[in-house]
Specification:
CATH class of the largest domain: Mainly Beta
CATH architecture of the largest domain: Sandwich
Number of helices: 8
Order of helices and strands: EHEEEEEEEEHHHEHHEEHH
Helix content: 40-55%
Shape: globular
Largest sheet: 5 strands, antiparallel
C-alpha cells in the first residue's frame, strides 16, 4: 500500500474545511484497505476507483456484501468502540485512492463540523436503505432478478442518467457472492441479458440502464427459474 500526503479537491474540498487530519492512501487492484479481524482504528472515504466489501464465515465461505464507489465512507465500525475489530475485508477492484481519517479526529469533526456530520449521516442512511433493499431482494426475488438489480445498482452508482453505463471491473464469482447464487447461474443469466440487449461486453460490462429497468418492471421477458432449470437439465 503506497501512502502520500495530498490536499482534497473538488467534491472533497469540505474535508479541508473541516480541519481533518487525514492522508491519502493509494492501492493497486486486489490490495486490501483492511482485513477481517484487523484493529478498527480509522475510517476511509473513497476518492477514486471501486472497492468491494466482503466477509468470510467460520466455515471459510466468502460473500461479497457491497461495493464502494467514490464518495462513500467505509470502516465506520471504528467509531463504535476503542478496541473493536474489523468485521469485513475491503479490497480494491481497480486502482484506488482514499482518504484515511483516524478515529479520534473523525469523532471530533462530527461533533464540531455540521457539514461533515451531515455528509457522514447521509452516507449511513443511504447505506442502510441499500442494505434493506438487498435483504428484501434475497427474500422475495429470484436469483435472476437479484442479478439484474445488482447490475443496475452498480451502474447507477457511477454516471447516473446515462443510457449505457460501464460498471466497475468485477468477476462472475464476485457477482455470484453478491447475488447469493452460483457462478454457473450468473453465467447463464448474463448470456441471457446480453441476448436481450440489456447488457453488452467490450472488455468491461456495459449496462443499458433504461432497458434493464424495463425488464425489472415486466416489460422484458426475463427467463425465470423454470427456464433455467430446463437449460441446466438439457
Amino acid at each position: 500500500m503506497n501512502k502520500k500526503e495530498n490536499q482534497p479537491a473538488g467534491q472533497f474540498a469540505w474535508l479541508a474545511e473541516a480541519g481533518l487530519d487525514r492522508r491519502i492512501v493509494a492501492l493497486e487492484p486486489e490490495e486490501t484497505f483492511f482485513c477481517q479481524g484487523d484493529a478498527a482504528d480509522c475510517v476511509y472515504i473513497l476518492e477514486t476507483g471501486r472497492a468491494k466489501i466482503s466477509v468470510v464465515s467460520e466455515a471459510g465461505k466468502q460473500a461479497t456484501i457491497s461495493l464502494v464507489a467514490p464518495g462513500d465512507f467505509f470502516g465506520e465500525l471504528a467509531l463504535a468502540a476503542n478496541t473493536c475489530l474489523r468485521l469485513t475485508t475491503v479490497t480494491a477492484l481497480n486502482a484506488c485512492t482514499a482518504f484515511k481519517i483516524g478515529r479520534d479526529d473523525m469523532t471530533r469533526a462530527m461533533h464540531e463540523q455540521n457539514e461533515f456530520c451531515d455528509q457522514f449521516l447521509s452516507h449511513l442512511l443511504a447505506r442502510n436503505i441499500r442494505t434493506q433493499a438487498a435483504l428484501m431482494d434475497q427474500i422475495f426475488h429470484s436469483s435472476e432478478k437479484r442479478l439484474a438489480r445488482t447490475l443496475l445498482r452498480m451502474a447507477e452508482s457511477g454516471n447516473t442518467g446515462e443510457a449505457r453505463t460501464m460498471i466497475p471491473p468485477i468477476t462472475q464469482e464476485t457477482l455470484a457472492e453478491m447475488v447469493g447464487t452460483t457462478r454457473s447461474r450468473v453465467s447463464f443469466f448474463m448470456n441471457r441479458f446480453r441476448d436481450l440487449g440489456l447488457i453488452s461486453y467490450g472488455g468491461r460490462i456495459h449496462v443499458h440502464t433504461p432497458r434493464l429497468k424495463s425488464a425489472l418492471t415486466g416489460k422484458w421477458p426475463l427467463c425465470g427459474e423454470k427456464a433455467l432449470q430446463a437449460a441446466c437439465a438439457s
